[in-house]
Amino acid sequence: MHFDFALGRLSWNRGPVDTDEVLDLIKDVAAEVITPRFRSLSAGEVMEKKPGDLVTVADRESEAILTKAISAAYPEAFVLGEESSSADPEVLPRYLAADHAFTVDPVDGTKNFVHGSPDYAVMVSENRGGETVRSWIWQPEHELAWVAERGSGVFRNGERVRREPVADDGRPRGVTSMWPLRGHSYGDLPPLSGSWVCCGVDYPKLIEGAADYILYGRNSPWDHAPGSLMVQEAGGVVGHPDGTAYGPRSTVPGIIVAADRDTFSVVRRQAQAAFTR
Question: Could you give the C-alpha distances from 252 to 86, 221, 240, in angstroms and in order?
Answer without folding.
Answer: 19, 11, 7
